[in-house]
Specification:
alpha+beta, two-stranded parallel sheet, 17 helices, rod-shaped
C-alpha cells in the first residue's frame, strides 16, 4: 500500500472549471485570479442587466399613445446612473473582497471567523449590488413621478424586476469565482453549522422563485398595465409578450443553469472521487468549496477516504506481521480452531548465531539477521509459501496453508534449493541449515479470544526442525525427507535423491533423508 501524500482527484479541474486554476496555486495568484473573475463577472452581469432593463423600459413596456420614449429619465438619467453605479459597485466590492480575503496572502489556515466571512462573501457582494439596484428603483420612480407620472409604475417595476434577476445571477457567478478561496478557507473541513441554516433546499426554492417566479410576475404585471392602457393595440401587445417572453425564458434558463452548475460541481467531484476509489486508489482527496450540505458531503467523503486509507494501512501492517493470507483468513472468520491440511514445512536456522552475538556488536547482528530474513521471505513468497513465524534466528515457513497450493511439497523443495544457493552467494559470512518435510497438520488459529495466532501443529513441524539440525553438519546445508520428495511432482522430484535413513530426536519412526542430486 502506497503511503504517499493524498492527491486531488481532479487535477485539471479541481473546482469544476479551468477558469478557477489548479488546486496548488500560490496564495497571490489565487487572490488575483479570484478578484479578476469577480470583477469581470459582476461588471458583465450588471451591464447586461442594465441594458436589458433600459431596452424594456424604453422600447417594450406599454405606455399611452404619443408618449416620449426617450424622455430624460430613460435617455440620460438611466445610462448615467448605470455608469456611476458600476464604478461605485466595483470599488466598494473590491475593497470589501480584498479585506475579507486578506488572510489568503498570509498563507495560513483561516480562523473560524474568517471562514464564515469568506463563505458569506458572495452574499455580501450581492447585497451591495442589491442596494444600488434598489436605489435605482427609488430614484427612477421618483424622477418619473416628477417628469412623466404615467410611466412611473412601469419604470419602477422594470428596474426592480431586472435588479432582482441580475443580483441573483451575480451571486451565483460570485460563488463560482470564489470556490478556490472557499476551499482554502475550509481546508477540507465541513462548513460551519451556522452557515447550513438555510441549506440546499431553501437555496433551491429561492433560485426557482427568482428564476421563474419573478420574471413571470413581471410578465403578469405587464399584462395588467396593458389592460389599464386601453389603447394598446393587438400588434403592440403581441410584440410586448414576445419580447418579455424571450427575456423571461433567457433569464429563467440562465439562472437555472447557474444554479444547477453550483449543485452539480460538488456532487460531480464526489462522484469522480468515488470512481477512483472503486478502482482501488485510496490516496484521494477533494477540495471542499461549498457552504451548504454539499460541502458537508465533500468533507464527509474526505473523512471516509481517510478512514479507508487508515484501515488499509492497518491491514498492510497486520499483513507484514502475520502474512497477507492470514489477514484474509482472519477477516473471513476469527473463531479459534483449525482444520487438517496436507502441507510442506520448511525450517531454516542460522549456524553459530550464539557465537555471532558474542563477538559482534548487537547492531551488526540485527543487520545480519534482517539480511538473512529478507532472502528467506523473498524466496518463500516467490514459491507461494507463508512465513509462519520468526523464532530468534530461525524461520518456519509453510506451503499449503492458509492458502492452498497445487504442489505444496514441490514448492517447498524448490524454495529450499534456491534458498541454499542464494544464502551462499548473498550471505557468505553466515551459514544456515535448511530442513524440509511434508505431511498432515492442523492449521488454524490458537490462543485466547483476546489474543490469536495462526500456526500449524503436527509431526511434520517437529520433523522439519530436527532435519534442520542435521543439515547444519552436511555439505550444502540442505536436507529433506523422502516423504516430501515422493509427494512432489516429477519435475521437482528429479532434483533429489534418497540418502540414509535416520531416527531424529523426538520421533519413534525413522526418516528417509533426501539430498539434492
Amino acid at each position: 500500500m502506497s503511503q504517499r501524500r493524498p492527491e486531488l482527484v481532479l487535477q485539471r479541474k479541481p473546482f469544476g472549471s479551468w477558469l478557477l486554476g489548479p488546486a496548488g496555486q500560490s496564495p497571490r495568484r489565487l487572490r488575483v485570479r479570484s478578484q479578476l473573475l469577480l470583477t469581470v463577472f459582476l461588471l458583465a452581469t450588471n451591464i447586461i442587466g442594465g441594458c436589458v432593463v433600459f431596452v424594456l423600459a424604453v422600447f417594450v413596456m406599454p405606455g399611452p399613445p404619443g408618449e416620449d420614449r426617450l424622455d430624460p429619465v430613460r435617455a440620460i438619467a438611466f445610462p448615467a446612473y448605470l455608469l456611476a453605479a458600476l464604478v461605485i459597485g466595483v470599488v466598494w466590492g473590491t475593497r470589501y473582497a480584498l479585506k475579507a480575503t486578506a488572510w489568503v496572502l498570509e498563507d495560513r489556515p483561516a480562523t473560524r471567523r474568517e471562514q464564515i466571512i469568506t463563505l458569506r462573501l458572495p452574499l455580501r457582494l450581492t447585497l451591495i449590488e442589491a442596494f444600488l439596484w434598489l436605489l435605482a428603483t427609488v430614484v427612477f420612480t421618483v424622477l418619473a413621478l416628477v417628469l412623466q407620472p404615467e410611466s412611473a409604475l412601469r419604470i419602477g417595476i422594470t428596474v426592480f424586476d431586472g435588479g432582482i434577476v441580475t443580483c441573483v445571477a451575480a451571486y451565483l457567478l460570485s460563488e463560482f469565482a470564489l470556490r478556490p478561496v472557499a476551499a482554502r478557507a475550509l481546508a477540507d473541513e465541513a462548513p460551519p453549522k451556522r452557515l447550513l441554516a438555510a441549506g440546499l433546499k431553501a437555496r433551491t426554492l429561492f433560485f426557482w422563485a427568482v428564476g421563474s417566479g419573478v420574471p413571470v410576475v413581471g410578465l403578469m404585471l405587464t399584462a395588467l398595465l396593458a389592460l389599464i392602457e386601453k389603447d394598446v393595440s393587438a400588434t403592440r401587445l403581441s410584440v410586448i409578450i414576445l419580447a418579455l417572453g424571450t427575456v423571461v425564458l433567457s433569464c429563467g434558463g440562465l439562472l437555472t443553469v447557474l444554479s444547477a452548475r453550483s449543485v452539480v460541481a460538488p456532487v460531480r467531484s464526489v462522484r469522480t472521487a468515488l470512481t477512483v476509489i472503486g478502482e482501488g486508489e485510496l490516496n484521494v482527496r477533494i477540495p471542499v468549496f461549498d457552504g451548504t450540505e454539499l460541502g458537508s458531503l465533500q468533507a464527509g467523503f474526505n473523512r471516509m477516504a481517510a478512514g479507508l486509507r487508515e484501515r488499509e494501512r492497518i491491514r498492510d501492517l497486520f499483513g507484514r506481521y502475520v502474512g497477507a493470507d492470514v489477514v484474509r483468513e482472519a477477516l473471513a472468520g476469527d473463531a479459534l480452531g483449525g482444520e487438517e491440511r496436507f502441507v510442506a514445512v520448511l525450517f531454516v536456522d542460522l549456524v553459530g548465531s550464539t557465537e555471532l552475538a558474542a563477538v559482534r556488536p548487537p547492531g551488526e547482528v540485527v543487520q545480519l539477521l534482517n539480511r538473512f530474513f529478507e532472502v528467506v521471505v523473498d524466496e518463500v513468497d516467490r514459491q507461494g509459501g507463508f512465513v509462519n513465524k520468526f523464532a530468534g534466528d530461525a524461520v518456519l515457513a509453510v506451503f499449503g496453508a492458509p492458502a492452498e497450493l497445487p504442489d505444496p511439497a514441490g514448492s517447498a523443495l524448490q524454495a529450499g534449493r534456491t534458498l541454499a544457493s542464494r544464502l551462499a552467494e548473498e550471505l557468505p559470512e553466515a551459514t544456515a541449515g535448511i530442513g524440509i518435510t511434508a505431511g498432515m497438520v492442523v492449521a488454524g488459529t490458537v490462543g485466547d479470544v483476546r489474543r490469536h495466532e495462526y500456526t500449524v501443529i503436527g509431526d511434520p513441524v517437529n520433523e522439519a526442525a530436527r532435519l534442520t539440525e542435521l543439515a547444519k553438519s552436511v555439505p550444502g546445508r540442505l536436507l529433506a525427507s523422502m516423504t516430501a520428495v515422493d509427494e512432489a511432482t516429477p519435475a521437482e522430484a528429479v532434483h533429489w535423491k534418497a540418502d540414509d535413513e535416520v531416527t531424529v530426536r523426538g520421533r519413534n519412526r525413522p526418516t528417509r533423508l533426501a539430498i539434492p542430486s
